[in-house]
Amino acid sequence: MSAPLSHIAIIGGGTAGWMAAAALARVLDTKAIAITLVESEAIGTVGVGEATIPPIQAFNALLGIDEAEFLRATKGTYKLGIEFVDWRAHGTRYFHPFGTHGVDFGAIPFEALWQRARMAGAAAPLEAYSICAEAARLGRFQRPATTGNNPLAHIGYAYHFDAALYAGFLRARAEQWGVRRQEGRVTSVERASDGAIAGVVLEDGARIAADFYIDCSGFRALLLGEALGIPFEDWGRWLPNDRAVAVPCALGLEGRTPFTRSTARGAGWQWRIPLQHRVGNGLVYASAQCSDEDAQALLLSTLEGEPLAEPRVLRFRAGRRARFWERNCVALGLSSGFLEPLESTSIHLVQAGIARLLEMLPVGGGTPADIRRYNRLMATEFETIRDFLILHFHATARDDTDYWRQLRTMELPDTLADRLAIYRASGRLYREADELFSKTSWLAVLHGQGVDPIGYDPIADGMARDEARTRLARIAEVTALAASRIPAHDAFLRESGAMVE
């Protein structure tokens, strides 16, 4: 029988490292299982991921974090979804909301009734049925209602925040709960006779030995990639962007909108993420189609306020490690893979890895069955998110640059091709097992990118057309009224105690 864990070493800090440290320390008895995090102040972090998706609420709740305190500490704002500008074609825009579109009617899904009505010219625009889309358009926010049968109960939200401040916020809690931080740069990794990691040696000669290791060393993947030799699966043929340039700027006239904006550009896309004290901006692009100098010039020319720092250029590859858990080591964050930040999934993938690690907490280094299951689940997580991201780039009418022409004609993964074929034939949407993105997300992006079905799901005929038309009209009417009555976003931040004054 394997010995129980007595020491977990986390190699690397940043958002991923301190998320792991805080979660483990919150759940485990740190007097029985020591947790050491090794990081070097001399090694910078990527630290530009400032937008999240709703599952982060569950992670913060696990840690017992008060929302207002968290937002003050990270200078955060609320997020109801993402606005996409110029993606389908120049001059177009659509909104990918959190929450839901409309409501299902028993076994008849909302989208089936809406597609049938849309084809007959009897439906409102899709966003009229989303409380998050309507509130975002008005610059308003509130938390979801917990009582009553009204659209306010269907609000879904996440956050924008300063990732470096979030890491520091988590570090304070993790250290309070017993995590020991070790300053230093890892210079070598020792292997045991069975191939497992035996220890790491720091530049000052100190040696850290543990039963289990978590690799949060960033793109380098010091443990999983370099020491254990797990190869990287490159997804550049589907997601060719391999650079990002980021720069914060002062808040402009638009202010603290409760949503992220993504604007398609000639060789990539640009993000706008409003925080309490500034705006995070970045341009993600393919270096084969755009030089670093041109990317910086474009980004700086489109800022709404004065730049607050020098632009930073980041290099990356889209893809994942062939395995995420090998022997006595799990990789989290950039060490495990990277999917560009179009749908704000980077922090979620860290969270998903932590959640599954807690579910399969190893005895010793972990059983082979646990390791296989973890790797299978995380591979599926990455691949379903990958397919959703590819959809944005492939389903477009844009042909104004080589970049867009290549993307719209690329060969798709079979999983995405099948999903598109089903939707185009019937408008039918589905969610595989517990995949991250819901039918609401798929419908918003499919319709927003111009993918409309030639037929509708026949289950819609279970409701008479006149009755469906009346119900849809009522949903849109009540949604608009509810959105008009909730507070302005800034007012809610102040009244809830989340704003740093």
TrEMBL record:
InterPro entries assigned: FAD/NAD-bd_sf (IPR036188), Flavin-dep_Halogenase_NPB (IPR050816), Flavin_halogenase (IPR006905), Trp_halogen (IPR033856)
Positions that bind FAD: 13-16, 186, 334, 347
Keywords of this entry: FAD, Flavoprotein, Nucleotide-binding
Molecular function GO labels: monooxygenase activity; nucleotide binding
Transmembrane segments: none
Record: active site: 79
Binding residue positions for L-tryptophan: 343
Name of this protein: Tryptophan halogenase
Record organism: Sphingomonas pokkalii
